[in-house]
Amino acid sequence: MTNPCRHLQVRFVSREEDAEFVECVSCGEVFDAAELRDIAAEENEVGPDEEQEANAS
Ligand SMILES: [Zn+2]
């Protein structure tokens, strides 16, 4: 069984031309900061989407 880490606590490690890299404090994984934003966006999609549909109709 894997326990997927949500990387809620990250620290900045390095920056390249078009990307910033962060390290998860919990699991130590290093990844592009843009991926972290994608993860956060997925979590926020459910509620707001339903509201928008209600307003459109
Ligand atoms: Zn993590």
How would you summarize the topology of this molecule?
Layout: E1 10-15, E2 20-24, E3 30-32, H1 33-56
Antiparallel strand pairs: 1-2, 2-3
Textual characterization of the structure:
The chain is built from 1 helix and 3 strands. The longest helix is centred in the last third of the chain and has 24 residues. By secondary structure, the chain is an alpha+beta fold. The mean pLDDT is 80. It has one domain. Bound molecules: zinc ion. The site of zinc ion has 6 residues, from loops.
Give keywords.
57 residues, alpha+beta, 3-stranded antiparallel beta sheet, 1 helix, 3 strands, binds zinc ion
Helix fraction?
Answer: 40-55%
Distance between the termini: 43 Å
Q: What is the rounded Rg? A: 15 Å
Shape: flat
Which structural class do you get from the secondary structure elements? Answer: alpha+beta
What is the chain-wise order of helices and strands?
EEEH
Strand order in space, largest sheet:
1-2-3
**What does the largest sheet look like?**
3 strands, antiparallel
Give a short synopsis of this structure.
This protein has 57 residues and is an alpha+beta fold. It is built from 1 helix and 3 strands.
